[in-house]
Every structure is written in structure tokens, then in C-alpha cells.
Design brief:
The chain is mainly beta and 217 residues long. The protein has helices at residues 82-94, 137-140; strands spanning 5-9, 15-25, 28-34, 46-50, 143-147, 153-158, 161-164, 174-179, 185-189, 192-200, 204-208, 213-216. A hairpin with a 5-residue loop joins strand 1 (5-9) and strand 2 (15-25). This is MYO2 protein.
Length: 217
């Protein structure tokens, strides 16, 4: 395990890269933290991490030999978990757009099929407007959804899963959903990741990268 490239969570539950220096026993590890980009100066910061409650009692591994622009097909990743997906998305869409020291302030605009990144210094980002203390974005989006264009039922967001309406007849009628670090929704549908931007106002909407817009019922 020593020398393994892994991901650890910080106090804000954001992911950070690291290298295991030692296994301390009981699912605890000493990890040297790293910057997101290979060219960033390596820090001397270390942390003891408790992985006993994680799946398999292990820290999530990084994918080896990740290209500078990320893997175009994420279904080919050896390690397909949340931090690996977010790291790959960062490489593909954000690494060239972020200024040093502003890596944590990224907004993803998925209202079109293009991705945009920009510094965001206000903790109260537009996407989180309306969130109550202790609530997550997924908490606010629980319930039934329909398409704005034609009113057709789409399905129901229940917990961290989206249950599709039977009319869609997908091979997998339940899809995992999570929120990435930029405040975008990510839904895994038939081995493809789709990205949406929530909006809170008179209606609660999700605008997807393919141009589809959902309305909460």
C-alpha cells in the first residue's frame, strides 16, 4: 500500500490527491497530500486518514497514466468512482481554464453542450440559492420531474438515484446521481455521464447539456 496514489477528503468533503506513506493499522493511513496538477510544486503536508468506513476499508485509488487532457472515454477507467470521475473531468474541461490558487472556485455551465469554467469567489453561488442550512443540492431536488418542452414525465429523484418513468424503457431504469464540486449534477445513464445545471426560481429546473430542460413537479 505504501506509495499508492489515492484520493482523500478534506474538511469540506472535497477530494484531494495524495500518496500513501505508511499503513498505520486499523484502516488508518499516513498520506502525503498533492496538488491537482502534476506540474504543481509538491507540498510537505501530510495527514492521517481513517479509511475504515470506506468501501473495502481502502482509500480510492487514482488512475495511472492519466493524460493531460484526461481520458475521453471514462468507461475505460480502471478505477471508476466519484473522485476519479471528477479528476478526469477536471483534466478534460478545467485544467487550462483555472488560474493558480483558484482551483476550488469553478462554475460549470451546462446549459449548452459546451463547458465553461470561471473563477467564483462568492460562497453563495447561484446554483445553491435557496438551500437551507444542512441541506444538499440533491435534498432540494428530490421528487418527480417532467420535461419542460412537452410535459412528459421523466421520473423521480429518490435519494442518490433517479428512477426513470417506464415510458423511457432504458436497460437500467435506475441511474445513480451525484453532485460534483462545481455544483453540477452528474447522472450515469447506460454507461454515459450526463451533466445538468439546476436553477431555483419560480420553478425548479435542471438544464442538461443536450439542451433538454426538466421541471420539478
Amino acid at each position: 500500500m505504501e506509495g499508492a496514489k489515492v484520493y482523500v477528503q478534506d474538511a469540506r468533503e472535497s477530494w484531494q490527491r495524495g500518496t500513501v506513506q505508511a499503513a498505520l493499522g486499523g484502516g488508518r493511513y499516513k498520506v502525503a497530500l498533492q496538488g491537482w496538477e502534476e506540474e504543481e510544486p509538491q507540498t510537505s503536508q501530510t495527514r492521517e486518514v481513517d479509511a475504515s468506513n470506506m468501501e473495502g476499508g481502502m482509500l480510492p485509488f487514482q488512475n495511472a497514466d492519466m493524460p493531460n487532457n484526461g481520458f475521453p472515454d471514462m468507461t475505460t477507467l480502471d478505477h471508476l468512482h466519484e473522485p476519479a470521475l471528477l479528476h478526469n473531468l477536471r483534466r478534460r474541461f478545467f485544467s487550462q481554464a483555472c488560474e493558480p490558487g483558484q482551483e476550488d472556485s469553478i462554475e460549470m455551465d451546462t446549459s449548452t453542450e459546451e463547458f465553461a469554467a470561471r473563477p467564483w469567489n462568492d460562497d453563495d453561488a447561484i446554483v445553491t440559492t435557496g438551500l437551507r442550512q444542512g441541506q444538499t443540492l440533491l435534498d432540494m431536488l428530490q421528487g418527480h420531474w417532467r420535461r419542460k418542452e412537452d410535459g412528459q414525465p421523466v421520473g423521480q429523484l429518490s435519494g442518490a438515484y433517479f428512477v426513470w418513468d417506464p415510458r423511457w424503457k432504458f436497460a437500467d431504469m435506475v441511474s445513480p446521481v451525484f453532485e460534483d464540486l462545481s455544483g453540477a449534477l452528474v447522472i450515469d445513464l447506460e454507461s454515459q455521464l450526463h451533466f445538468g445545471r439546476p436553477f431555483f426560481g419560480r420553478e425548479t429546473l435542471i438544464s442538461w447539456g443536450d439542451g433538454d430542460v426538466w421541471v420539478k413537479q
